[in-house]
Every structure is written in structure tokens, then in C-alpha cells.
Design a protein that fits this description.
The protein has 160 residues and is α+β, with helices and mostly antiparallel strands. It has one domain: Alpha-D-Glucose-1,6-Bisphosphate, Chain A, domain 4 (2-Layer Sandwich), CATH 3.30.530.20. It is built from 6 helices and 7 strands; from the N terminus they run H-E-H-H-E-E-E-E-H-E-E-H-H. The chain has helices at residues 3-8, 28-36, 38-44, 95-98, 130-136, 139-154; strands spanning 18-24, 49-52, 59-63, 70-80, 84-89, 103-112, 116-124. It comes from Microbacterium rhizosphaerae. This is SRPBCC family protein.
Length: 160
């Protein structure tokens, strides 16, 4: 890691593994669909539309709202529908972050008694990607997860 990256984000090591959890009143399949289908991601993932079959070894892409620009273009590493999905992550929407090594996002969906699920999003492999770690930390992923929850529970995202 360059000294420049460390001087920009001195807390990068602390942010190398980020874990976010949220309870959602939805089935595992509904949550899986919200993660892997464009009609859902467009409502909560900053307007981006996911393109994937969610099969191991296939692409996992996010297209910007313009439909052309790629915000993410990675690969599915693990897939166990509708329980677990592991994909690569590079923030192509930011030139500096795009130059960093890819990190990884793991989605885990655990059914709970009472008709809801615990969704855990773990963003890791960020040790060599301090700009990405800083950009997605805290409010970044929480906005996505809160929006996903809102879409599934109310039918609309957080943004009007």
C-alpha cells in the first residue's frame, strides 16, 4: 500500500472488514431477488441496475442509471440461493477506487422465527483498498441496506 493511500485514510486497517446487519420482514427468496434483480437494485442501490445470473464464475455487474456506464464489473465467487452470495467488488464509479485491487462482498440471508430474515453484508479484502474501504464504510452500506429493507417492506425505496 502506498504512503499516499495511508495518508488519505489512516484508519484503513480498521475498515478492512466491514460487517453490516439488518432484519427484513421478507422471505429469503425475496431478499435474494432484491440483491440479484435489476428492478429491485434500481430502487435502492443509487439507481444502479444489477446484471447477473448469480451463478459461480459469471459476471456480477452494476450499471449506472444511464444504462451504459459500469459502476461495478466483477465475478460471482460463491452462490447458494437464496442463502449466500459472494461477489467481487471494485468501485468503478470513482477513478481512484477503481485503481485499487478488488475487494469482496458476502451476502448472507438467515431466516428467523416470525417471518423475517437477518441479512448480513460483509465487505472484506479491503486491506489494499483504503479508498474503497473509506467510501463504503458506515453510511454507504447502511443506505443500501436500509433502502433494500424499505423496498421489500413498503414497495418503495428511501429516495422519492
Amino acid at each position: 500500500m502506498s504512503n499516499d493511500a495511508m495518508s488519505i485514510h489512516p484508519d484503513a486497517a480498521r475498515e478492512a472488514v466491514q460487517v453490516y446487519q439488518i432484519f427484513i420482514k421478507a422471505t429469503p427468496q425475496a431478499i435474494w431477488d432484491a440483491i440479484t434483480r435489476p428492478e429491485f437494485t434500481a430502487q435502492y442501490f443509487y439507481g444502479s441496475r444489477v446484471e447477473t445470473t448469480a451463478e459461480v464464475g459469471t459476471p456480477f455487474r452494476y450499471r449506472a442509471p444511464d444504462g451504459e456506464t459500469l459502476w461495478g464489473d466483477e465475478t460471482v465467487f460463491e452462490s447458494d440461493p437464496p442463502r449466500r452470495l459472494v461477489v467481487g467488488w471494485r468501485s468503478l464509479y470513482d477513478e481512484q477506487a477503481a485503481a485499487e485491487p478488488a475487494s469482496r462482498i458476502t451476502w448472507e440471508i438467515e431466516p428467523q422465527d416470525g417471518g423475517f430474515c437477518l441479512l448480513t453484508a460483509t465487505h472484506d479484502h479491503l486491506e489494499q483498498s483504503p479508498i474503497t474501504a473509506h467510501n463504503v464504510a458506515g453510511a454507504g452500506w447502511m443506505m443500501v441496506l436500509s433502502g433494500l429493507k424499505s423496498v421489500l417492506e413498503t414497495g418503495s425505496g428511501l429516495a422519492a
